[in-house]
Amino acid sequence: MNNLPNIDVIIIGINVQRYLGDCIASIRRADYPQELLTITFVDGGSSDSSVAIGREAGVGVIELNDPHPTPGKGRNAGLFAAAAPFVQFMDADTLLNRDWLKTALGHFDDKIVAVCGKRSERWPDKNSYHIIASLEWYYEQGPCRYFGGDFLARREPLAAKGGFDGSLIAGEEPDFSARLRRKGWIIWRIADPMTLHDLNMTTFAQYWKRAYRSGHAYAEVGMRHLNGEERLWARELARVIMAALLPFLFILVGALFGQPLIGLLLALAAAIKPLLRIPRTITKYRIGLGVALLYSLHASFVVYPQFLGVLRYLKTRCGGTPLRNRA
Fold it and tell me: Closest by alpha carbon to 145, among 116, 165, 174?
């Protein structure tokens, strides 16, 4: 491609000293003229050596020093400090594919505001949590509803719309994507590899927290867009609520009508419904029976911490203290 444009690469993270150096190195290995790339690390309030690593690597560093950092605040700081016509967003725990920038640029036209590709786990077989995450990075291709944390975009339309909503602790990318698409912009997803991600999840507590926050995001973003034409995440929100409550409702109704055994059996059937989709899961993801069973068990269970996240957001709506990140 001739006349390659300048690109600002924005990396965000907190306490990412184990990742940041490799992330920056992957950008410098990219098949793209380095003189056209400006790399900036936006630190959300690290207590480790992240800031020092960024400075030693010779990249720009922005320190937020915010008591309640969010990914949206970090990305906005990078976005509004950028000057290039294109911006590549990255999380610090990712590695950029060598060919990504040129590949993504080839898909832009006058209506496409952002291009995203395939994010894959760096260690997909490390444990059950990584196996599940590897399957969750599966998204539709072509025109899509939203980008994630890694994508290449035109800077001006993003800045003109005010950037990400920095108040959201999660779900800021789908929320911003919906606002952009309402203005007629298209988000385009391709199958080409974009980034490698390190989930680095080893404990059930980490798994629970991730699911809890996703449920909170479904509620906050879903209710925000409930009156819109698309109703972004309304279906996901309804699925979490119904899947979490239905087993308990069956048990309650069975007890009220003097049929506790029938209520219990119906509750069990509702709880394990994802297991009935194992053949479809095998076909969709092209995986074996063992992995499909693991993913189906995850789908059966994950709705419960997600539902608690939904309740936490409803508590905020009723006057409670908002859920916030801490630096």
Answer: 174
